[in-house]
Every structure is written in structure tokens, then in C-alpha cells.
Amino acid sequence: MALSSSPDVSALTHGAPTFIQDDLEVLEVHLHRYLAPFLIEHDLLKVSVVVGFEGSSVGTTCVEVTPSNAKRADTDVDFGAVAQAVRANLGSVSLSKGVPDGRRFTAIPAFSVNGSREHPNAFVLVDVGERFLGDAKLVANLSWRANEAVRAFRNNCIRILFGEQNHPSIKGFLYALLDRLPDWTGVDHSVALILTGNLEAITLDSMVESEFEIVAERLFFDKYDENNEKRDRLVGLIIPGRGSESGLLGHAFQKIKATPQIGLHIFIPNDETGDTWHVFGEPEAIAKRFATRVNRPVEAMTIMIPLLSQDEIGREEMLGFLVLNYRKPGPISHLTASCMESMARRLGGYLRQSTLFGLSARQLLLLDRVRGELVEATREGKEKPLESYIERVNSLIAASTPLPCFAVGHLEESDHGALLRFAHPHGFTKFGAIALPVELQDGLEGSSVASLAVRLNRSVILAGGTSDDGVTLFNNEVYVNETLKRIVDARMVDPKDISSDGQWRHLSEYYKPSRESSYATLATPVSLGKKVYGVIAVEVDRQTDWLWWTGFGSQIFFRLLANELAVAFKMLGVIPR
């Protein structure tokens, strides 16, 4: 994929869903294709087709179909009200706008399968008294045609979106997908894309801890509540694959490990508080939401769909979940469930082939060149080989990636203890070369996210930064306890509930700005086992391409780069911590 900046998707993160115009045109085409022959054969001037989802607050779409065309009708009709009228066997329904007063219609439900427990995907409204209504076979045929039109509409919308992919970035494509889900599934609270964060999760290894991250989320409610308080998003939340903090995800993940297959994992709350949930159809299977300490409306039904992809010998790999949250528990028709599963299969295949789960040719070439720089730096007679090596690596990164700020730090001894020295950084605007104390001095004086990563010997990410007049503040609820060597997200659990030992500090307190603005800062330790030689420090803007800082692919890249640097630092005489 070509390197490019992600579009600003802030307008797509909040707000009520609206029927996408491109999707509406596809719906009109298919309704005309399937219904026009029936209208012509039976001399019908027009019918109206009501498309929606029972129990969902997603708006109803009404399309007027004639023998010559199909066009969205300007009329008020509620899908749920029509369903109730049909279920109550009232015989006919009326519309409150766009039709003459008193005019009534017979509503013919369109089912995807036969059976009394199936839920309608659409209703065909025809004038009361039409002659063909007395023929059960003709009514059944019209119902089938309407359902086939809705099925074809949803399948083709999915096919078109995945086939064209006219978005300049993975991020833009995924948010376009999330924005369309209400049209296809009736989801009306929020949707989220959760991706696996390590190899153990991908390979469904039952012996090692797995973790997941929410990388994208679309909320179908306002950004602020009635008290003008900003509602919380869950992007960046890290969720373990098992244990008490894993909640609904942990329950679904354990099921998938036992039987790796695509299917709907539906959860319903036990009461209005939403504290405890159960698996639909299994009231004894109790779980809980994995983010309870947030300001946002509580969902009333959650559907988790696993994203799987087969490897070269047919084994399933776990990529993550597509999560759909509803405001009320509602029926899911056979067609809607089939649509969800079909979309999950396509999304799993797309993600597995994307750079979110692999390395690009540019990244592989960059790693090869970094290794080549070690050979150049260790040539006989080279002055200051370590500093020369770091300078050349930083130059390579600056020339080959869109990363606005990148630096490699190495450990060195001083009279005052170990220092983390950054030489020849790329993109620093606050200062040039700098040496930071590795160990904490007076409080957090002189510390940084990079030195924290060295002390913990683990990667650390601080995101959610906004800048004003050169000051960067982070909307981030991650806390650190260095005594326990724990990093927790307060959106999931109160740090004080974990342990009172040591001191819990907000991760943003560690941030030491190196430039005028930053959306996220990433620090990856350069280590061999438990021996730490240095760190990779990266800062990105909101527009920086996901390829270089989000997802499993970027984690692999920085991990491999850190391995190359660790070997080089050891050969060049760096003394590890």
C-alpha cells in the first residue's frame, strides 16, 4: 500500500447514523430489479417497500417502486410500528405523511426463511383491495422478491466496499465500514474493531496470555451528554484474553479457542445497571462489560463477531472481533445474521492481507538497511562508531517513513548513574541531543515515557494528545505502578482496586515533549531478554499513517528493529541495564 496520510475521521466518530447515499442507490436498484417484473405482470402502478430493523432506533427507509423506477419516498413510517400491526393481525396500516388522508395499505412481510420465529427484513405496502392479495402464492412470491432485493442490496454493498477500497488508508476504509453498519445490521449504539495484540492471540495458543486492543470505534450518539460532559470513547483500550478483566471478550475468546469458527456471540445484560451480563440462550453463563468506568450510555445488547483467517495449511488465525452494541435488545433476523457473518469473513481476509498484520516491502527493506549500517559502522578505523551508527539509522528512518519524530537512545554510564542518551534525533524541535536519567530522581523529574519503557522493559504507548500554544495535553486514562510493574487503563478498572502497594501515576505525567505537538508517543525498549541497551522513541500526529504506529504489523516492525539495534549496541560496546 502506498504511504499516505490518513484522512481526518473525527466527523465519523460520533452522531446518529444516516443512510449512506451510495447504499440507498444500491437499494433502489435492487428493489426495482426484483419488483418491477411483478408490478408489470399484475398491472400494479406502484408499491412501497419499508426497510428497517425491529427494535432498533436506526431510521426506517421507505422506497416507492413503480414499473419504471424506484426512489426513496418522503413519508413517515416506523418499521417497528408496521411490524406490531402485522403481528397483531390488524389487516392494514396507514402512513402519516406523503399519502392522501385515510388511505390504507396491506403490509406483506418479507422473511429470509420460512417459520413463525423468523423476523421480517422488509414490508411491501400495497393498496388494500388489490386483486392479487387473495392469491397466497402471489403474495408469497412478492414477499420473496422483496427479501431477495434486501439480501442482494446488503451483499452487494459489502462486495462493492471491499472491492473498490477507494480510501487512501486502512484507517479511512475501516471507518467507512463502521459508518455503514447501521444500514446493514441496524446497530444503533456503537461499533468497535478490536484487534489481537500478540502472536499468542493470533495463533490461539492456550498456554500464554493473550491481549486485544480497540483500534477503531464509531459512536451513534452525541459527543456530549446532557450536562455537556464529553462522552468517552474506548479507542486504545487493551483487553486481556482471559481473567476477570476480560469480560465479554474473554468469554467469547475462550469459546473460539475451543471451536475456531465465525458466528455471533450475543450478550444480554441481567438488569438495567449493565453490571453483569449473560450469553443469549445461556442465562447461567455470566460475564461483564470490559469497560465500566466510562461516561457513555449503557448498551443493552452486544454482538461480538470473531474475525478469522486461515493460514497456508488451513489453520484458523484469530485477528480480533467486530463488536456491535445496541440500545435495546432486539431480534436479529436470519438474513441480518448471515450478513454479519459474511462481512466478518471478508473483513478477516482483508485485515490478514493488510499491513495491520504484516510487514510492507518498505519496512522489510528498511530493516535490511539498518543491518547493513552495522557493517558500515564497525569498519576498522571508524571514529565514534556507535554515534555514527545511530545517526545513519535515524537518517534512514527519516528518509523512508512518514514518522514526524523518531529517535534512538542508548544507555551510557555517568557519575550520576545510567543515562539514556539520544543523539541525532529526527523531528525534535524542543531540543537537539539530550541525555535523560534512567532511574527516577526527585519524583518524575527528568523522566520520560522512553526511560519508563527502559525501566519496565516493555513497550509503552501514550495516545490522545491535543496541543494548544505549544502545550500538549493527553486525554488518556492509563496509569503506571513501577513497584508492581503494571500499566492499567482506568476505563476498565480503578487502579486502587488492583493494589495499594507502590504509587499509581498517570502515564501522561511521564511525558517529556520533544516537539511542539504530538498525538501519540511510543517507546520500545532495545533489549536482549532481560538486558536493556536502549530505546526507540517515536512521536506521531493524528494524521500519521496507521501503517507506522497502529496494529500488530507496526508492533512487529518496531520489535524487529529493536532486535537489530540490540545486537548492534552489544557489538558496539553499550553496557546493558
Biggest sheet layout: 8 strands, antiparallel
Domain module count: 3
Strand content: 15-25%
CATH superfamily of the largest domain: GAF domain
CATH topology of the largest domain: Beta-Lactamase
Helicity, as a percent range: 25-40%
Rounded mean pLDDT is: 87
What is the overall number of helices?
Answer: 12
Q: Which structural class is indicated by helix and strand composition?
A: alpha+beta
CATH architecture of the largest domain: 2-Layer Sandwich
Strand order within the widest beta sheet = 9-8-7-14-13-10-11-12
CATH class descriptor name of the largest domain: Alpha Beta
- Report the count of strand segments: 25
Uncertain regions: pLDDT < 50 for 5+ in a row?
A: 1-11
First and last CA, distance: 39 Å
Net shape: elongated
Strand-helix topology:
Layout: H1 21-41, E1 47-51, E2 61-65, E3 70-72, H2 79-87, E4 93-94, E5 104-110, E6 122-127, H3 136-164, H4 170-185, E7 190-196, H5 199-202, E8 211-219, E9 238-240, H6 247-258, E10 265-269, E11 277-279, E12 282-287, E13 301-310, E14 316-326, H7 334-353, H8 361-377, H9 385-400, E15 405-414, E16 417-422, E17 434-437, H10 449-456, E18 460-463, E19 465-468, E20 471-474, E21 478-481, E22 486-489, H11 495-498, E23 505-506, E24 520-528, E25 531-540, H12 551-571
Antiparallel strand pairs: 1-2, 1-6, 2-3, 4-5, 5-6, 7-8, 7-14, 8-9, 10-11, 10-13, 11-12, 13-14, 15-16, 15-25, 16-17, 18-24, 19-20, 21-22, 21-23, 24-25
